[in-house]
Design goal:
The chain is mostly helical. The chain contains five helices and no strands. The protein is globular.
Length: about 140
């Protein structure tokens, strides 16, 4: 698939997704970018790792921005979790530390799995544990 075709496909997926499906897409992106950064750190490609971690951090900021201010303890804890993930990604980027990337990935993957269950009830994971968003079903 050419970059232009992929861009068109990605744009179509975003514009036709429900709000919960968009959250799934954001978490998938954050996991993908953090995992790529981890590989770049292991390969001593500092610039590529930096760029991928910035992308993951940007997504976490976007997810935090979508949380409405509330005094509900669950909302407060969810915001705090995202703030923690952001801080870990920031430190991982500053120190180029695989263990910190792994810590962030652990939390991002739990959130991804949770949101996949919310957005896509009854769906089964495919290869790699990712649930496919199929609008034909």
């Amino acid at each position: 698939m050419s970059p232009l075709q992929y861009s068109s496909y990605a744009q179509a997926q975003v514009t036709t997704s429900s709000p919960t499906e968009l959250i799934v897409l954001l978490y998938r992106g954050a996991v993908r970018f953090a995992a790529k950064a981890r590989l770049h750190i292991q390969n001593h490609d500092v610039e590529a790792a930096h760029n991928e971690l910035l992308r993951a951090q940007s997504i976490v900021i976007e997810l935090m921005g979508g949380l409405k201010p509330s005094t509900n303890p669950l909302d407060v804890e969810l915001y705090a979790l995202h703030n923690y993930i952001y801080e870990v990604l920031y430190r991982a980027n500053r120190e180029k530390d695989v263990a910190m990337v792994d810590e962030a990935l652990k939390h991002l993957r739990v959130q991804l799995e949770t949101w996949e269950q919310i957005a896509l009830p009854g769906s089964r994971p495919v290869a790699g544990g990712v649930i496919s968003i199929d609008r034909k079903a």
